[in-house]
Amino acid sequence: MSSSTGGGVPSRSSSAIMVSTVRGYHLLKIDGYSRTKKVLRFGEFTRSCSFRVGIHSWHIRYYPNGSSYTVREYADGSRDADSVSLFVVLESDEYVTGVQETAEVRLSLLDHAGEPVPEYVRTETAALSSSSNSRIFLSCNLIESEVLEASEHLANDRFTVRCDIALMKAPSAVADPPAAMVDVAVPLPELNRDMEALLQSEEGADVTFEVGGESFAAHRCVLAARSSVFRAELFGAMKESTGGKARVDGVEARAFKALLHFIYTDTVQEFDGKEEISMAQHLLVAADRYNLERLKLICEDKLCKRIDVSSAATTLALAEQHHCPSLKKACMDFLYSPGNLKAVEATDGFEHLARSCPVILRELIAKLVAL
Which of 73, 262, 306, 369 is most buried, with most CB under 10 Å away? Predict the structure, then answer.
Protein backbone atom coordinates (compact mmCIF):
# COMPACT_ATOMS: atom_id res chain seq x y z
CA MET A 1 0.00 0.00 0.00
CA SER A 2 1.23 3.52 -0.73
CA SER A 3 0.03 7.00 0.07
CA SER A 4 1.04 10.53 -0.72
CA THR A 5 0.03 13.96 0.44
CA GLY A 6 0.42 17.29 -1.21
CA GLY A 7 1.68 15.76 -4.46
CA GLY A 8 4.84 14.36 -2.83
CA VAL A 9 6.55 11.13 -3.75
CA PRO A 10 4.43 8.18 -2.56
CA SER A 11 5.92 5.84 0.01
CA ARG A 12 6.46 2.28 -1.17
CA SER A 13 6.73 -0.98 0.69
CA SER A 14 5.93 -4.66 0.22
CA SER A 15 5.65 -7.81 2.26
CA ALA A 16 5.28 -11.54 1.69
CA ILE A 17 3.49 -14.42 3.38
CA MET A 18 6.09 -17.08 4.03
CA VAL A 19 6.31 -20.50 5.62
CA SER A 20 9.61 -21.03 7.41
CA THR A 21 10.82 -24.59 6.85
CA VAL A 22 13.62 -26.62 8.44
CA ARG A 23 14.64 -29.89 6.78
CA GLY A 24 16.78 -32.83 7.77
CA TYR A 25 17.13 -36.55 7.18
CA HIS A 26 18.44 -39.69 8.88
CA LEU A 27 19.70 -42.91 7.29
CA LEU A 28 18.82 -46.14 9.10
CA LYS A 29 20.97 -49.05 7.91
CA ILE A 30 19.75 -52.56 8.71
CA ASP A 31 22.81 -54.83 8.76
CA GLY A 32 21.89 -58.47 9.32
CA TYR A 33 18.22 -58.36 8.35
CA SER A 34 17.69 -62.13 8.64
CA ARG A 35 19.11 -62.17 12.17
CA THR A 36 16.81 -59.35 13.29
CA LYS A 37 13.82 -61.40 12.07
CA LYS A 38 14.93 -64.34 14.21
CA VAL A 39 15.67 -62.30 17.35
CA LEU A 40 12.59 -60.02 17.30
CA ARG A 41 9.13 -61.60 17.14
CA PHE A 42 5.96 -60.09 15.69
CA GLY A 43 5.24 -56.80 17.50
CA GLU A 44 8.76 -56.48 18.90
CA PHE A 45 11.06 -53.69 17.77
CA THR A 46 14.43 -52.09 18.15
CA ARG A 47 15.10 -48.40 17.55
CA SER A 48 17.58 -46.09 15.87
CA CYS A 49 19.75 -43.60 17.66
CA SER A 50 18.06 -40.27 18.38
CA PHE A 51 18.59 -37.58 15.76
CA ARG A 52 17.68 -33.91 15.63
CA VAL A 53 15.74 -31.97 13.04
CA GLY A 54 15.00 -28.38 14.00
CA ILE A 55 14.72 -28.11 17.79
CA HIS A 56 13.28 -31.63 18.17
CA SER A 57 14.70 -35.11 18.68
CA TRP A 58 13.33 -38.09 16.79
CA HIS A 59 13.96 -41.81 16.44
CA ILE A 60 12.77 -44.68 14.23
CA ARG A 61 11.30 -47.93 15.50
CA TYR A 62 12.10 -50.98 13.38
CA TYR A 63 9.77 -54.03 13.47
CA PRO A 64 11.37 -56.75 11.27
CA ASN A 65 8.29 -59.00 11.58
CA GLY A 66 5.63 -56.30 11.58
CA SER A 67 3.58 -54.56 14.25
CA SER A 68 0.03 -55.13 15.47
CA TYR A 69 -0.58 -51.42 14.78
CA THR A 70 -0.03 -51.88 11.07
CA VAL A 71 -0.61 -55.60 10.39
CA ARG A 72 -4.13 -56.95 10.84
CA GLU A 73 -4.43 -60.06 13.00
CA TYR A 74 -7.59 -62.20 12.68
CA ALA A 75 -9.58 -64.27 15.21
CA ASP A 76 -8.19 -67.56 13.91
CA GLY A 77 -4.64 -66.38 14.62
CA SER A 78 -3.79 -65.62 11.04
CA ARG A 79 -2.67 -62.17 9.91
CA ASP A 80 -1.70 -60.18 6.87
CA ALA A 81 1.53 -61.06 5.12
CA ASP A 82 4.61 -60.35 7.19
CA SER A 83 6.00 -56.90 6.52
CA VAL A 84 8.82 -54.67 7.64
CA SER A 85 7.11 -52.01 9.76
CA LEU A 86 8.61 -48.65 10.70
CA PHE A 87 7.44 -45.93 13.09
CA VAL A 88 8.84 -42.38 13.23
CA VAL A 89 8.63 -41.07 16.80
CA LEU A 90 8.89 -37.52 18.15
CA GLU A 91 10.51 -37.65 21.58
CA SER A 92 8.18 -35.72 23.92
CA ASP A 93 10.85 -34.26 26.20
CA GLU A 94 12.16 -32.32 23.22
CA TYR A 95 8.82 -30.68 22.44
CA VAL A 96 8.70 -26.90 23.01
CA THR A 97 5.26 -25.61 23.89
CA GLY A 98 3.92 -22.51 22.22
CA VAL A 99 5.59 -23.28 18.87
CA GLN A 100 3.10 -23.97 16.07
CA GLU A 101 4.67 -26.37 13.62
CA THR A 102 3.57 -28.94 11.08
CA ALA A 103 5.76 -31.93 10.31
CA GLU A 104 5.96 -33.71 6.96
CA VAL A 105 7.59 -37.10 7.52
CA ARG A 106 8.66 -39.41 4.69
CA LEU A 107 10.14 -42.92 4.86
CA SER A 108 11.86 -44.33 1.76
CA LEU A 109 13.49 -47.64 0.95
CA LEU A 110 16.74 -46.86 -0.87
CA ASP A 111 18.19 -48.67 -3.87
CA HIS A 112 21.88 -49.50 -4.37
CA ALA A 113 22.53 -45.98 -5.70
CA GLY A 114 21.08 -44.42 -2.54
CA GLU A 115 17.93 -43.22 -4.31
CA PRO A 116 14.36 -43.74 -3.01
CA VAL A 117 12.40 -46.60 -4.61
CA PRO A 118 9.10 -44.89 -5.62
CA GLU A 119 6.87 -47.89 -4.74
CA TYR A 120 8.23 -47.95 -1.21
CA VAL A 121 7.88 -44.33 -0.11
CA ARG A 122 5.46 -43.50 2.70
CA THR A 123 4.51 -39.95 3.72
CA GLU A 124 2.49 -38.42 6.56
CA THR A 125 1.79 -34.79 7.47
CA ALA A 126 0.54 -33.74 10.91
CA ALA A 127 0.65 -30.85 13.36
CA LEU A 128 3.03 -31.03 16.32
CA SER A 129 1.43 -30.87 19.76
CA SER A 130 2.73 -31.39 23.29
CA SER A 131 2.00 -34.77 24.91
CA SER A 132 3.06 -36.66 27.99
CA ASN A 133 4.04 -39.63 25.83
CA SER A 134 6.22 -39.94 22.75
CA ARG A 135 4.30 -39.04 19.60
CA ILE A 136 4.22 -41.55 16.74
CA PHE A 137 4.21 -39.48 13.57
CA LEU A 138 4.32 -42.11 10.89
CA SER A 139 3.61 -45.84 11.18
CA CYS A 140 3.67 -47.98 8.09
CA ASN A 141 4.33 -51.36 6.52
CA LEU A 142 7.17 -50.28 4.30
CA ILE A 143 7.49 -53.50 2.29
CA GLU A 144 6.33 -57.12 2.57
CA SER A 145 9.06 -59.42 3.84
CA GLU A 146 8.84 -61.82 0.88
CA VAL A 147 9.06 -58.95 -1.59
CA LEU A 148 12.10 -57.45 0.17
CA GLU A 149 13.89 -60.80 0.38
CA ALA A 150 13.39 -61.42 -3.33
CA SER A 151 14.41 -57.91 -4.38
CA GLU A 152 17.78 -56.43 -5.29
CA HIS A 153 17.32 -53.86 -2.52
CA LEU A 154 18.39 -56.48 0.04
CA ALA A 155 22.08 -57.11 -0.66
CA ASN A 156 24.37 -59.08 1.64
CA ASP A 157 21.53 -59.19 4.17
CA ARG A 158 21.49 -55.39 4.34
CA PHE A 159 19.14 -52.59 3.30
CA THR A 160 18.81 -48.87 4.05
CA VAL A 161 15.84 -46.65 4.87
CA ARG A 162 15.88 -42.87 4.68
CA CYS A 163 13.71 -40.71 6.91
CA ASP A 164 13.13 -37.14 5.68
CA ILE A 165 11.51 -34.62 8.01
CA ALA A 166 10.37 -31.10 7.07
CA LEU A 167 9.19 -28.83 9.90
CA MET A 168 6.98 -25.96 8.77
CA LYS A 169 6.02 -23.08 11.05
CA ALA A 170 2.72 -21.25 10.78
CA PRO A 171 2.61 -18.82 7.85
CA SER A 172 3.70 -15.33 8.76
CA ALA A 173 4.14 -12.01 7.03
CA VAL A 174 7.59 -10.53 6.61
CA ALA A 175 8.59 -7.27 5.07
CA ASP A 176 10.54 -7.54 1.86
CA PRO A 177 14.18 -6.61 2.34
CA PRO A 178 15.55 -3.44 0.82
CA ALA A 179 17.24 -3.60 -2.55
CA ALA A 180 20.12 -6.04 -2.56
CA MET A 181 23.55 -4.67 -1.86
CA VAL A 182 26.02 -4.85 -4.72
CA ASP A 183 28.90 -7.17 -3.88
CA VAL A 184 32.27 -6.11 -5.22
CA ALA A 185 34.84 -8.86 -5.76
CA VAL A 186 37.84 -7.85 -3.67
CA PRO A 187 41.09 -9.58 -4.62
CA LEU A 188 43.28 -11.29 -2.05
CA PRO A 189 45.91 -9.16 -0.28
CA GLU A 190 48.86 -8.41 -2.55
CA LEU A 191 51.28 -6.84 -0.09
CA ASN A 192 53.49 -9.93 0.24
CA ARG A 193 53.73 -10.32 -3.53
CA ASP A 194 54.53 -6.62 -4.03
CA MET A 195 57.15 -6.59 -1.27
CA GLU A 196 58.83 -9.67 -2.72
CA ALA A 197 58.88 -8.00 -6.15
CA LEU A 198 60.44 -4.89 -4.58
CA LEU A 199 63.19 -6.98 -2.99
CA GLN A 200 63.95 -8.86 -6.20
CA SER A 201 63.90 -5.78 -8.44
CA GLU A 202 66.25 -3.83 -6.10
CA GLU A 203 64.47 -0.67 -7.25
CA GLY A 204 65.10 2.15 -4.80
CA ALA A 205 67.51 0.01 -2.74
CA ASP A 206 69.84 2.16 -0.63
CA VAL A 207 72.03 -0.38 1.16
CA THR A 208 74.02 -3.41 -0.03
CA PHE A 209 75.11 -6.29 2.19
CA GLU A 210 78.21 -8.33 1.44
CA VAL A 211 77.60 -11.86 2.77
CA GLY A 212 79.82 -14.85 2.03
CA GLY A 213 81.00 -13.45 -1.29
CA GLU A 214 77.52 -12.49 -2.45
CA SER A 215 75.80 -9.08 -2.55
CA PHE A 216 72.20 -8.35 -1.49
CA ALA A 217 70.53 -4.99 -2.10
CA ALA A 218 67.79 -3.87 0.28
CA HIS A 219 65.87 -0.86 1.60
CA ARG A 220 66.87 0.66 4.93
CA CYS A 221 63.34 1.68 5.91
CA VAL A 222 61.96 -1.83 5.40
CA LEU A 223 64.76 -3.44 7.41
CA ALA A 224 64.50 -0.87 10.20
CA ALA A 225 60.72 -1.31 10.43
CA ARG A 226 61.08 -5.05 10.91
CA SER A 227 64.22 -5.39 13.04
CA SER A 228 65.41 -3.30 15.98
CA VAL A 229 68.98 -4.47 15.28
CA PHE A 230 68.88 -3.27 11.68
CA ARG A 231 67.31 -0.02 12.88
CA ALA A 232 70.24 0.57 15.25
CA GLU A 233 72.82 -0.32 12.62
CA LEU A 234 71.30 1.65 9.73
CA PHE A 235 69.85 4.70 11.51
CA GLY A 236 71.64 4.81 14.84
CA ALA A 237 75.22 5.48 15.85
CA MET A 238 76.52 3.15 13.12
CA LYS A 239 74.70 4.98 10.30
CA GLU A 240 77.69 6.95 9.07
CA SER A 241 80.11 4.04 9.32
CA THR A 242 77.93 1.72 7.26
CA GLY A 243 77.34 4.16 4.43
CA GLY A 244 75.77 2.38 1.50
CA LYS A 245 77.46 -0.97 2.15
CA ALA A 246 77.61 -3.33 5.08
CA ARG A 247 79.56 -6.53 5.55
CA VAL A 248 77.92 -9.38 7.43
CA ASP A 249 80.10 -12.09 8.94
CA GLY A 250 78.96 -15.30 10.63
CA VAL A 251 75.87 -15.79 8.45
CA GLU A 252 75.64 -17.99 5.35
CA ALA A 253 74.65 -16.21 2.13
CA ARG A 254 71.62 -18.47 1.53
CA ALA A 255 70.44 -17.95 5.11
CA PHE A 256 70.75 -14.16 4.77
CA LYS A 257 68.79 -14.31 1.51
CA ALA A 258 66.03 -16.28 3.27
CA LEU A 259 66.18 -13.76 6.13
CA LEU A 260 65.54 -10.87 3.73
CA HIS A 261 62.68 -12.82 2.13
CA PHE A 262 61.05 -13.17 5.56
CA ILE A 263 61.60 -9.50 6.42
CA TYR A 264 59.87 -8.38 3.23
CA THR A 265 57.07 -10.98 3.04
CA ASP A 266 56.66 -12.36 6.59
CA THR A 267 56.85 -15.88 5.10
CA VAL A 268 59.55 -18.55 5.18
CA GLN A 269 60.68 -20.19 1.97
CA GLU A 270 60.22 -23.95 1.71
CA PHE A 271 63.28 -26.21 1.53
CA ASP A 272 63.33 -29.96 0.92
CA GLY A 273 64.72 -32.84 2.97
CA LYS A 274 67.95 -32.41 4.90
CA GLU A 275 68.41 -28.95 3.43
CA GLU A 276 65.35 -27.91 5.43
CA ILE A 277 67.05 -28.88 8.71
CA SER A 278 70.29 -27.12 7.80
CA MET A 279 68.49 -23.99 6.63
CA ALA A 280 66.30 -23.90 9.75
CA GLN A 281 69.45 -24.08 11.91
CA HIS A 282 71.18 -21.25 10.05
CA LEU A 283 68.01 -19.14 9.92
CA LEU A 284 67.49 -19.56 13.66
CA VAL A 285 70.97 -18.14 14.28
CA ALA A 286 70.31 -15.20 11.94
CA ALA A 287 66.86 -14.55 13.42
CA ASP A 288 68.31 -14.43 16.93
CA ARG A 289 71.06 -12.08 15.78
CA TYR A 290 68.61 -9.62 14.22
CA ASN A 291 65.92 -9.97 16.89
CA LEU A 292 63.26 -11.47 14.61
CA GLU A 293 61.38 -13.39 17.27
CA ARG A 294 58.64 -14.77 15.01
CA LEU A 295 61.14 -16.16 12.52
CA LYS A 296 63.14 -17.64 15.38
CA LEU A 297 60.06 -19.44 16.73
CA ILE A 298 59.16 -20.73 13.25
CA CYS A 299 62.63 -22.23 12.91
CA GLU A 300 62.46 -23.64 16.43
CA ASP A 301 59.15 -25.33 15.61
CA LYS A 302 60.52 -26.83 12.38
CA LEU A 303 63.58 -28.19 14.17
CA CYS A 304 61.48 -29.71 16.98
CA LYS A 305 59.70 -31.79 14.35
CA ARG A 306 62.89 -32.90 12.54
CA ILE A 307 65.13 -34.18 15.36
CA ASP A 308 67.05 -37.31 14.39
CA VAL A 309 70.41 -38.95 15.14
CA SER A 310 72.32 -36.82 12.62
CA SER A 311 70.93 -33.46 13.81
CA ALA A 312 70.22 -33.92 17.54
CA ALA A 313 73.61 -32.79 18.86
CA THR A 314 74.05 -29.72 16.65
CA THR A 315 70.43 -28.69 17.21
CA LEU A 316 70.82 -29.04 20.98
CA ALA A 317 73.92 -26.82 20.87
CA LEU A 318 71.96 -24.19 18.92
CA ALA A 319 69.07 -24.39 21.37
CA GLU A 320 71.39 -23.77 24.31
CA GLN A 321 73.38 -20.97 22.66
CA HIS A 322 70.33 -19.11 21.34
CA HIS A 323 67.96 -19.59 24.28
CA CYS A 324 65.33 -21.89 22.74
CA PRO A 325 63.83 -23.77 25.73
CA SER A 326 61.23 -25.77 23.76
CA LEU A 327 63.83 -26.93 21.25
CA LYS A 328 66.25 -27.83 24.05
CA LYS A 329 63.60 -29.94 25.77
CA ALA A 330 62.74 -31.75 22.52
CA CYS A 331 66.43 -32.61 21.96
CA MET A 332 66.94 -33.75 25.55
CA ASP A 333 63.84 -35.96 25.37
CA PHE A 334 65.24 -37.56 22.21
CA LEU A 335 68.63 -38.20 23.87
CA TYR A 336 67.10 -39.72 27.03
CA SER A 337 66.68 -42.92 25.01
CA PRO A 338 69.91 -44.94 25.52
CA GLY A 339 69.76 -46.18 21.93
CA ASN A 340 69.49 -42.66 20.54
CA LEU A 341 72.24 -41.33 22.79
CA LYS A 342 74.66 -44.07 21.75
CA ALA A 343 74.01 -43.38 18.07
CA VAL A 344 74.40 -39.61 18.53
CA GLU A 345 77.73 -40.07 20.35
CA ALA A 346 79.20 -41.42 17.11
CA THR A 347 78.40 -38.24 15.15
CA ASP A 348 80.64 -35.22 14.57
CA GLY A 349 77.90 -33.06 16.03
CA PHE A 350 78.33 -34.70 19.44
CA GLU A 351 81.99 -33.65 19.56
CA HIS A 352 80.91 -30.10 18.71
CA LEU A 353 78.32 -30.24 21.50
CA ALA A 354 80.91 -31.48 24.00
CA ARG A 355 83.31 -28.65 23.12
CA SER A 356 80.80 -25.81 22.90
CA CYS A 357 78.29 -26.76 25.61
CA PRO A 358 79.92 -28.97 28.29
CA VAL A 359 77.26 -27.89 30.80
CA ILE A 360 74.60 -29.54 28.64
CA LEU A 361 76.47 -32.84 28.73
CA ARG A 362 76.63 -32.74 32.52
CA GLU A 363 72.91 -31.96 32.66
CA LEU A 364 72.15 -34.83 30.29
CA ILE A 365 74.26 -37.32 32.27
CA ALA A 366 72.66 -36.22 35.55
CA LYS A 367 69.16 -36.82 34.21
CA LEU A 368 70.08 -40.19 32.71
CA VAL A 369 71.50 -41.29 36.08
CA ALA A 370 68.30 -40.17 37.79
CA LEU A 371 66.10 -42.27 35.46
Answer: 262
Average pLDDT over residues 300-321: 92
Q: Name which residue leads in pLDDT, 98 or 152.
A: 152
Tell me, letter by letter, the H, E, C secondary structure of 186-255.
Answer: CCCCCHHHHHHHHHHHCCCCCEEEEECCEEEEECHHHHHHHCHHHHHHHHCCCHHHHCCEEEECCCCHHH
SS (H, E, C) the chain: CCCCCCCCCCCCCCEEEECCEEEEEEEEEEECHHHHHHHCCCCCCEECCCEEECCEEEEEEEECCCCCCCCCECCCCCECCCEEEEEEEECHHHCCCCCCEEEEEEEEEECCCCCEEEEEEEEEEEECCCCCCCEEEEEEEEEEHHHHHHCCCCECCEEEEEEEEEEEECCEEEECCCCCCCCCCCCCCCHHHHHHHHHHHCCCCCEEEEECCEEEEECHHHHHHHCHHHHHHHHCCCHHHHCCEEEECCCCHHHHHHHHHHHHHCCCCCCCHHHHHHHHHHHHHHHHHCCCHHHHHHHHHHHHCCCCCCCHHHHHHHHHHCCCHHHHHHHHHHHCCHHHHHHHHCCHHHHHHHHHCHHHHHHHHHHHHHC
308-371: CATH topology is 1.25.40
pLDDT tens digit sequence for 21-57 = 899 999 999 999 999 999 999 989 999 999 999 888 9
Question: Where do the domains of the chain lie?
Answer: 18-173, 189-306, 308-371
Instruction: Kindly tell me the burial class for residue 162, based on how many C-beta atoms sit within 10 Å of its own C-beta (0-12, 13-18, 19 or more).
Output: middle
Over range 208-232, report the average pLDDT: 95
What CATH number does the domain located at 189-306 have?
A: 3.30.710.10
Mean pLDDT of the chain: 87
> What pLDDT is recorded for position 12?
73
Higher model confidence: residue 164 or residue 241?
164
**Domains 189-306 and 308-371 in one fold:** no
- Residue 348: the pLDDT is 87
The topology under which CATH files domain 18-173 is: 2.60.210
Q: What is the pLDDT of residue 366?
A: 78
In the predicted structure, residue 363 carries a pLDDT above the cut 90: no
